[in-house]
């Protein structure tokens, strides 16, 4: 497995963070003026952003939970067979439902909000309002119809997502890779809960291209919280105490964090803590 570069990590992390606000200007991240497609959920809220440059690959950004209804889906832990051509096991029903739900566009859009959009965004919205490609399709079908022309051009997909968006990226990535071999370049998730059952972990075909980022003791990364039933996939990169740990078991992560908290008052006595604060004096 190739290592995830720092600039790649920072790029995906920023895109995941900035994907949540309603206002999103893809041009400031270096994407082409026409290099954007937004895919909405059943409520008309943007759930996926497909972004690309004419001379580069595609980045697909999946949002995490945006409403109480989305959070409730996390509780539906019954198995659901992945909608892929070849059998690849079972995943958390709620996460796959996020991809199966119908994709629709808001019918009401205030003029003052419309005027704030770029010309390309206005054109995309008008097309969708007129019954464009995404109207009436599922979220997964809308995603596939968006990336298919780009794959035909020889582009590859980098998938990223936060929280349940990370689980969506994993499931969608497996489906697209089966339909279009070689389509997925990498998958990078942040704070992702466990997505599938043991058979999905065993059969998942993108384990060597998947990076799962976890920060300290992010409780969501331990969910659904049913030991030996739900399993993570890919390589774990655990960010803790200014270091990156690879594939650290969950139990060891919990013990190390608790130990760190208990020893924190003593750790502040060490000289390296004082040396790291040297920059403070440049500010005064």
From TrEMBL:
It comes from the Bacteria. One of its GO terms (biological process) is lipid metabolic process. Residues 59-226 form the Fungal lipase-type domain. InterPro entries: AB_hydrolase_fold, Fungal_lipase-type, Sec_MonoDiacylglyc_Lipase. This is Lipase.
């Amino acid at each position: 497995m190739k290592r995830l570069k720092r600039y790649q990590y920072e790029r995906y992390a920023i895109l995941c963070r900035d994907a949540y606000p309603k206002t999103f200007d893809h041009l400031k991240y270096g994407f082409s003026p026409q290099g954007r497609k937004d895919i909405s959920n059943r409520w008309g809220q943007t759930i996926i952003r497909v972004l690309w440059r004419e001379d580069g690959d595609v980045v697909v950004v999946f949002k995490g939970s945006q409403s109480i209804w989305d959070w409730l889906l996390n509780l539906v832990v019954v198995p659901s067979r992945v909608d892929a051509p070849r059998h690849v096991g079972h995943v958390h029903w709620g996460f796959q439902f996020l991809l199966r739900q119908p994709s629709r566009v808001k019918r009401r859009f205030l003029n003052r909000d419309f005027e704030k959009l770029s010309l390309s965004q206005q054109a995309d919205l008008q097309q969708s309002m007129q019954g464009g490609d995404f109207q009436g399709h599922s979220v997964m079908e809308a995603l596939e119809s968006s990336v298919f022309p780009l794959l035909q051009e020889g582009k590859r997909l980098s998938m990223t997502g936060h929280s349940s968006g990370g689980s969506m990226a994993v499931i969608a990535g497996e489906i697209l890779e089966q339909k279009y071999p070689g389509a997925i370049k990498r998958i990078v998730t942040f704070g992702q809960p466990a997505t599938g059952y043991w058979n999905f972990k065993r059969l998942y075909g993108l384990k060597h291209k998947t990076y799962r980022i976890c920060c300290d003791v992010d409780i969501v990364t331990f969910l659904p919280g049913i030991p030996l039933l739900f399993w993570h996939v890919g390589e774990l990169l655990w960010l803790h105490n200014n270091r990156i740990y690879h594939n650290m078991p969950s139990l060891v992560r919990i013990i190390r964090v608790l130990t760190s908290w208990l020893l924190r008052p003593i750790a502040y006595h060490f000289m390296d803590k004082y040396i790291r604060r040297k920059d403070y004096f440049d500010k005064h």
